[in-house]
TrEMBL record:
Name this polypeptide is given: Elongation factor 4
Annotated localization: Cell membrane
Gene Ontology terms, MF aspect: hydrolase activity; translation elongation factor activity
Known catalytic reactions: GTP + H2O = GDP + phosphate + H(+)
Membrane topology listed for this record: Peripheral membrane protein
Organism: Autumnicola psychrophila
Alphabetical list of Pfam families matching this protein: EFG_C, GTP_EFTU, GTP_EFTU_D2, LepA_C
InterPro entries recorded: EF-4, EFG_III/V, EFG_V-like, EFTu-like_2, LepA_C_sf, LepA_CTD, LepA_IV, P-loop_NTPase
Amino acid sequence: MKNIRNFCIIAHIDHGKSTLADRLLDFTGSVTDREKQEQLLDSMDLERERGITIKSHAIQMDYEYEGEKYVLNLIDTPGHVDFSYEVSRSIAACEGALLVVDAAQSIQAQTISNLYLALENDLEIIPVLNKVDLPSANPEVVSDDIVDLLGCEHSDIIPASAKTGLGIEEILAAIIKRVPAPSGKVDAPLRALIFDSVYNPFRGVETYFRVINGSIKKNQNIKFVATGKNYSADEVGTLRLKQFPREEIKTGDVGYLITGIKDAREVKVGDTITDAKNPTTEAVAGFEDVKPMVFAGIYPVDTEDYEELRASMEKLQLNDASLVFTPESSAALGFGFRCGFLGMLHLEIIQERLEREFDMTVITTVPNVSYQAYTNRNPNEVLLVNNPSDLPEPSSLNRVEEPFIKATIITKSDYVGNVMSLCIEKRGEITNQTYLTTERVELSFDMPLAEIVFDFYDRLKTVSRGYASFDYSPIGMRESKLVKVDVLLNANTVDALSALLHVDNAYDIGKKMCEKLKELIPRQQFDIPIQAAIGAKIIARETVKALRKDVTAKCYGGDISRKRKLLEKQKKGKKRMRQVGNVEIPQEAFMAVLKLND
Ligand SMILES: Nc1nc2c(ncn2[C@@H]2O[C@H](COP(=O)(O)OP(=O)(O)OP(=O)(O)O)[C@@H](O)[C@H]2O)c(=O)[nH]1
């Protein structure tokens, strides 16, 4: 045990975490040349394409230092705020953390939020100043920032470049010297923390764990504490680039477990594994069910594909336990599903996976957060509103509460004004303003989650010219004045276009929605009035004028091939359209409310 080191890498997005992990694997000889590939740890295609780490992974390295052999377990963590719960679990499985800071970008919002998570778990922090090879790097200034933040010495900071390999040896030495060896009770009943799980279509769910006390043996009868289910440990082993089956994984070490579980929902990140006959008495530390933050309807483009969509979603859920869905129906779109996501990125990923892996073309409706409504009839009963159509009628509605978050934004002092006006426009209330240095300011706001899940991040980037980083954490529900804004096309309400909005914004957004829809809905043979309404009251109106021109009109005469080509083109453009009443609505229109400021 004394020669094991468990550590993770924490950083703001794009500060070089995955690249650094690759260098460490290289340097310790954990990969052969043939296995070498950029960003080894990001194994999903999507991850590689998007250049982001979606799921956290673990990998074991051997390293000899001053004549002694060490086992280093690197637990990689996802960088996007949608997956922050996984970061916290990975952190809980370690004793130390490399805090990677980009020498050109300095400390950003997620550097700080991840650092706090690490400090809460008493991790030893090793600050790494990455990307010192960049011409724009500013190592002196950024080192000062790090010293201010951590209260460490300048000499504690390791200058490095994950690109050139500078500093890698020093980092490995620091992991061995500064990160404490795991401490745990070898003789106590098994207690292991699940920090991740991965779905393998052939072997079922692979569970990644860290043994805190005792050991886990092959064929042992084990129990998952939170779900209360028993399994047999069919295979346990250590994780290298490949899996290495072992007879036993001992106290302090990290490994994988295969039990034949076929459904990802049975394995919950943060749960504790214990022995079925001799269970641990210690409480499961900090286990939390991950709750979806954003809800949207997903409908097949072709109504006949509903069953196929259901089958695809069920398969997706087997390997992504954070996806939840229930069937729903919409007057406009027919049968589909209301799905819960961790955030907008997660929504995009699911949509893309449905298309790539299952060949499904789907229509996604306006996303919304989850509200809580109370009616006059029973003001104590909470009604969950995950869909605008679930909101009770205004006459019977007592009050609505919406989720709030604490937003932390770090920006340059020049942009404080812009950032503040943006946040105030988004119904934010400033709660704190701290100058980290004379140039950099940390701002905190209490804001409704609904305002930030959509275009906030892009707007923030624009108003700060890219010099703002952002992070948030939920702070509970607060009462809010919300109304349902409906959209009528050709005098028919299209339920899939309804949105829940704050009363102060409803008129403005209603008007913008009509304008945007006018741009997006193709002209047809007749005038299409577009109206926004609150209840029976129309608050805005636009009209899509009737079409006069036939696309093939120009090709009079016999040029049939050209005519066909044009018609093909028109058909392609129609692919993702939905006929509602007699109006054709393209997919973009369902998301129009998100793009009002484009
Ligand atoms: N010049 C230079 N570029 C680097 C260095 N380290 C990483 N990069 C580049 O910075 C970008 C981001 O690096 P990643 O390793 O993907 O960053 P990350 O923190 O893992 O990002 P997420 O996985 O999305 O959280 C990539 O284009 C890397 O090639 C470095 O030391 N020097």
